Structure formats: C-alpha cells, structure tokens
Predict the 3D structure of the following.
Amino acid sequence: MSQPGFGFRVTHTSGGARCGIMTTAHGEVDTPAFMPVGTQGAVKGVTHRDLEGSGAQILLSNTYHLYLRPGDDLIARRGGLHRFIGWSKPILTDSGAYQVFSLAERRTISEEGAHFRSHLDGSAHLLTPEKATDIQAQLGSDIAMVLDECLAYPSTVDAARESMQRTLRWARRARTRLLELRDGPVAGVAVSNPAQAQFGIVQGGVYHELRQESADATVDIGFDAYAVGGLSVGEPIDLMYDLVGRTTPRLPPDRPRYLMGAGTPTDLVEAIARGIDLFDCVLPTRNARNGQLFTSAGRLNIKNARYAQDDRPPDPECGCYTCRTCSRAYLRHLYVAGEINAATLNTLHNLYFYLDTLRRIREAIVFGRFESFRLEFHQRASQS
Ligand SMILES: [Zn+2]
C-alpha cells in the first residue's frame, strides 16, 4: 500500500520516456526531475533562494552527514529537516549507505549492518536497516531510502549475488521498521513527517540476471517506489544504459523510478529514454567548483587561458543569472583569483543548465517529440 500523501501519475509518454507528477507532503515535483545534492542540508555555494530561482523542486540530503553532524536528534527537536534548513519543498534523503562505503573509516559489514568509524572524529557507529530508517524518520524527509550494500566495481558474480541478497534482507527489515513507525510510536524515534514515503533499491552489480532477481524481489516487498542503485560506479557507459533499460520494465509503471547517482547530461537523456523519472548527482555542483561548466555545446573549462579575453557568456543560449550577467573572461578571472563568487556563479549556471535541460525534456515528451530532442541533444553535445 502506498503512503497517503505520496503519489505519482504519468501524464505523457514519448517512446520509453515519460512525464509525470510526483506528489509529496511538501508539494509536487514534475518528472523527469533532477535533485540537486545538499549534502549537509545546503547545496554548496548557493542559497535555497537561488535553488528555487533555478527551478529546483526537490532537494537531496545525505543521512550519513546529518546523522554525524549536527545529529538527527537535534534536527528532530527543531521540527525536522525542512524547518531546520528553511526549505519548504520536497526533500529526499539517502540511507547513508553510499557514504559509509565511500567515506567512513574501518568499515565492516555484517548481517546486522555496517560498522564504521566517523570520518570526522573516529567515533564508532553501527548503521543497521532499522537505524537508517529511524534516522530518516527523525529528519522527516519526504522520501526515505532503504539501507543497501554498495558493491565495489568490478565484482565477481558470486560477490554481487551475495551482496544483492543481503540488500534484499536489509530491505525487508527496513520496510518492517517503517511500517512499525507508521503504526504507532517506537521508543526513542520522533517521526518528523508522518507522510514520508520509502523507496526500495535494486542492486545486482553488472549482472542482468541478478538485477532482474533483485527487481522482482524488491517489488514483492512492496515499497512506495523503486530506485536503481549501484550504477555509475565505473562500469562502461553502454553497459549502464543496458542494465537500466532491462531493469525499468520490471518496476511498476505507476511508481516513479529513480536512478541513483547519475550522471552527465547525456546519462540523463539516455536514462529518461529508458523510463527513469528521478536523478541526483554531484557533477553539476562539484564540477562547477572545479571550474567546469556544462553548456548546450558541451563542457567548458573556465580556467582555460583561451577564455581570458572572451566577452561571451558561458552559454549564449542559457537564461541563468550567470549567463545573463557574466562573461567568460570575468568568470575565469574570479576562478583564477580564488574568489568565492566563482563557485557560486559557476554552480548557479550548472544547476540551471541541468534543471532547464530537464524542463526541455519534459516539454519534448509532452509534445511527443522526445526522440528528435534526444538526437539533436547528442549531436550538439558532441560538437565541442
Ligand atoms: Zn547559464
């Protein structure tokens, strides 16, 4: 049964791509949607006002970071994450799994969960499927993710199977816990958002049969919606597209599908063509801080000396604040001088570019011309 307050409706399709509206307790999200990553409750370099101005309808925040600092208890006492950070639109929180696997020190995995030490102060922690569910209940995000095991790439088929099956057992425990929290008070856990939805995650490495088995079994558990995890981790790009394309048909068509951690603008277009509705990725924000801008003509490295006297905006076709007011020469100067504004202006542009690309994709789907959009997009992106 889907959580009241959470809903999804497909409004248009064009080939395999679909356009829809996802409803949460904090408002609607037009899909396909891109979620900017606000790791510690803020998207680095920009304010929430900037985010809204860029068209962001939903934010992703990281459970691992917020749990360690300032702590989910502190946030729950302040009324939950929305109130604490001053963002009234939808929020999705991850389970913390990815950061435990990529950031934490001395990590060991057992059936119970992930034992690790904080990258901040070395303190010992145990993240179980129940604990990850509790933390997200206290944060009060609109969408919570189950704790999954993030498999290293490459992995053998046996290691991938074992990991996928553990992720399934963890998913059942996480679902049981969420249903307990919905049923009534659980000692020590403050439910900040009673309408929180929970997504299951399909794993299985790069093995089609494992991904199929994972998809079928995860759907059997009965989540509000489903994500495809463990991709965009170094596997060949065509293999990722193929795995996505074979997974989405096994997921319920009346629920949103979320491809975790992807990707480049090209990845977004290709995943949407295969029926994905939700994305998150640090690329637009992280690359902005490193001086790399995504444009309609491909990527542009603003630190390059060739832009020192270039009076054009980063992307003449972009309508963002940065492109309307700044030249490449100015942005390069700010970057070289190490000005904070370089990160802000570059981030504003990259986020706007991602969000505007999604907006144009939704429009193309509504008018039934996604395939021609896709063709033109690839032709232009390959010019640079
Ligand atoms: Zn721009």
